[in-house]
Design brief:
mainly alpha, Tetracycline Repressor, domain 2, about 75% helix
Length: about 210
């Protein structure tokens, strides 16, 4: 059965709410975000948000879970059929970079959570991150067993990789403002994680873990 016009309208409304909420949460953090502002940017009234999703806490959890949970499901599907640990690691890296590019508000939201000690981090998101790290752990351990990767701590690799991506994206406004102080190659870098940058990151991670 196809999607009805009512369902399609509802889905479009929810997507608008999620997009507006992600932007407001990235700008103001959970504590500073106001439902009035989210509703205004989503072009809906607050009652619509409460009806479809719930309060601010529920909205915050849904926004993050939609981004991280769906991305995890996607690259787990993409990992199927890739037998080589090296290929699986490349798929993993590519999937995360793709997610970060599609969701530019994710980095500032998560950096705020890190700075606050995860004060407002929903439990469901902790579970999503645990799945992501478990996938990476499995890839690295299998590579070690096959003799292609060195013994590493997956969380350190995860921190180097994810932390670097988040800092790269979130530092763009600062890099733009103070570009005169930066070396020429750094001035040319934009906010997006381009294919060239993605390949460089991929090569650096692979060099770090390969025997």
């Amino acid at each position: 059965m196809g999607t009805t016009s009512a369902e399609s309208k509802r889905n479009k409304t929810i997507r608008r709410i999620f997009t507006a909420a992600a932007k407001v949460f990235s700008e103001s953090g959970f504590a500073g975000a106001r439902m009035d502002e989210i509703a205004k940017r989503a072009r809906v009234n607050k009652a619509t948000i409460y009806y479809h999703i719930g309060d601010k806490k529920a909205l915050y959890a849904e926004v993050l879970h939609t981004i991280i949970g769906e991305a995890t499901e996607q690259f787990m599907d993409d990992l199927q059929g890739n037998e080589s640990p090296e290929k699986r690691l490349k798929v993993y890296i590519g999937g995360v970079i793709h997610t970060m590019n599609r969701n530019p508000y994710l980095a500032p939201i998560m950096l705020r959570e890190q700075a606050s000690g995860g004060r407002n981090l929903p439990e469901v998101i902790a579970g999503d991150f645990a799945r992501i790290i478990s996938v990476l752990t499995e890839i690295l351990e299998e590579g070690e067993k096959q003799g292609v990767f060195i013994k590493t701590t997956s969380f350190i690799i995860h921190s180097l990789f994810i932390g670097g991506l988040m800092f790269y994206q979130s530092s763009y406004p600062v890099r733009s403002r103070y570009s005169n102080f930066l070396p020429e190659p750094v001035k040319k870098l934009g906010a997006d994680l381009t294919d060239e940058i993605a390949r460089e990151i991929e090569n650096l991670i692979l060099k770090a873990v390969k025997k």
